[in-house]
Amino acid sequence: QLQLVESGGGLVQPGGSLRLSCTSSSLTLDDYAIAWFRQAPGQDRKAGSCISNSDGSTRYVDSVKGRFTISRDNAKNTVYLQMSKLIPGENAVYYCAAGPECSRVDEYWGRGTQVTVSS
Q: Is the Cβ–Cβ distance between 110 and 4 less than 8 Å?
């Protein structure tokens, strides 16, 4: 079900930074684990990071560790993905997803936001 809305995508130069947002008008995001996925052209959708709803712990795939940060602002019902040191290979549509825990975050999705890394 599409109950999440992503925003913040756009064009950024290699080495640059971008912050993506994920929000919902129908879900209280703090009730869910929230993950960010990305799908590059011709490739499968892949998980990149997740923030737990139980203890706020975060997890990242190795390729983004140290460069991406996932966080929540419960007052704004928003989850962010701060991305830095972006590389051209990270051109993709970025999606947020929600579920009961980080190992099961496929219950709700957004339509995605395009990130283009190019000079």
A: yes
> Does pLDDT of 76 surpass 90?
yes
In degrees and rounded to multiples of 5, residue 71 shows phi and psi of -155, 165
Q: Let me know: does 111 contact 2? Beta carbons within 8 Å.
A: yes
Confidence bin at 2 (pLDDT 50/70/90): confident
| pLDDT, averaged across the chain | 96
pLDDT digit string (tens) for 41-70?
A: 999 999 999 999 989 999 999 999 999 999
The dihedrals phi and psi of 74, each to the nearest 5 degrees, come to -65, -30
Residue 54: both structure tokens together: 């139980």
- The amino acid sitting at 116 is T
3 state DSSP class of 58 = strand
DSSP 8-state symbol, 57: -
**Residue ranges in 1-119 assigned as alpha helix (H):** none
Do 77 and 28 meet the contact criterion of CB atoms below 8 Å apart?
Answer: yes
Is residue 118 within 8 A of residue 11, CB to CB? The reply is yes
DSSP code, position 43:
S
